[in-house]
Design brief:
The protein has 326 residues and is of the alpha/beta class. The protein has nine helices and ten strands. The strands form two sheets. An eight-stranded parallel sheet has the order 8-7-6-5-4-3-10-9. The protein has a two-stranded antiparallel ribbon with strand order 1-2.
């Protein structure tokens, strides 16, 4: 007799600043808008506010459940993670000050919400000052790539606002990633698991409710090419931390490296990573992700529908009642 098994990701509620999202019944798609001149995936494409606003509206029309706005690149080698010239032993100055970040971000955020008041907007920032301003302007979620490690004041800002939070695992700052030692799959998984647990502890100490938190393994953030695949293969084990997972694999360099046999042994360029991004997205959903962060929304929505159907089929085959689709 086949033993009944619980669904891999379950159904839970994600408490945001002014509303609640259901997670797990279907995959939610988070569309990325980078208001930056230097992001690895689309640097400079949407740096003008009117272009960024138009892109955001386009992503919503394509089916994005959430928009994620970022105004500072965290590409490998960048100076992200420093708050002032005094931060860090090298005295490295931040690539983008809080003032500049807000000048890029807030006009776009405000215009999106004016045009689409129902839109759910996340802000991709590790700076407490920027998060406070964005939440006051109507953002619902703070997406912190550092998991509350780069700005000690951010957790209290999020707690005070009662917003949704995405806590990502990052292995060092971007200017340190190239020097990170290789880890075995077991060691990498434990590094990510323990790092995310520390982020959860910081959130709890600040008074952030567990139901406000989603966790992100941080693909590409201090992990080498093959390490990312090993992490993706075991991603579902991170669900033992008790919170839903967000996966951001879209256009990441490790996917380009997998295509090297088709590109003369060299990684595929960023613009050639759309199809492989969908493959990574499906793998992430099948390994327990409830939210996926993407650049091309329409194709991601379609791929997620198929992946969700597979998840439902697996759950039904295990004796679990199937869930409704999108």
């Amino acid at each position: 007799m086949k033993e009944d098994k619980p669904p891999i990701r379950g159904i839970t509620q994600w408490k945001l600043r002014a509303r609640t999202l259901e997670l797990g019944r279907r995959t939610l798609v988070m569309g990325v808008v980078n208001v930056t001149p230097d992001s690895f995936s689309d640097g400079g494409f949407f740096v003008e506010p009117e272009v960024a606003i138009a892109q955001a509206i386009r992503l919503l029309e394509d089916g994005a459940d959430v928009l994620d706005l970022g105004a500072e690149s965290t590409r490998p080698g960048s100076r992200a993670g420093f708050l002032s010239a005094a931060a860090g032993s090298s005295g490295t100055a931040p690539a983008v000050s809080a003032e500049e970040e807000q000048a890029r971000l807030l006009p776009v955020l405000e215009a999106i919400l004016e045009a689409r008041p129902e839109a759910i907007v996340s802000v991709d920032t590790y700076k407490a000052e920027t998060a406070r301003a964005a939440l006051a302007a109507g953002a619902e979620i703070v997406n912190d790539v550092s998991g509350f490690f780069w700005d000690s004041g951010l957790a209290s800002v999020c707690a005070e606002a009662g917003c949704g939070v995405v806590l990502m695992h990052t292995r060092g700052r971007p200017d340190e990633w190239a020097a990170q030692p290789q880890l075995t799959p077991d060691a990498l998984l434990e590094t990510v698991r323990s790092g995310l647990q520390l982020s959860l502890d910081k959130a709890s100490a600040a008074g952030i409710a567990a139901e406000s938190i989603v966790l992100d393994p941080g693909y590409g953030f201090g992990k080498s090419g093959q390490e990312n695949f090993a992490l993706l293969a075991r991603q579902a084990e991170l669900l033992a931390l008790g919170r839903p997972l967000l996966a951001g694999v879209s256009r990441k360099s490790f996917l380009g490296q997998a295509l090297a046999p088709l590109y003369g042994g060299k990684p595929a360029p960023t613009e050639a990573r759309e199809t492989v991004s969908l493959a990574g997205l499906v793998a992430a959903i099948l390994h327990g992700a409830s939210v996926v962060r993407v650049h091309q929304v329409r194709a991601a929505v379609e791929a997620a529908l198929v992946a969700d159907a597979v998840v439902r089929g697996r759950d039904q085959g295990s004796g679990v009642r199937g869930q409704a689709g999108r």
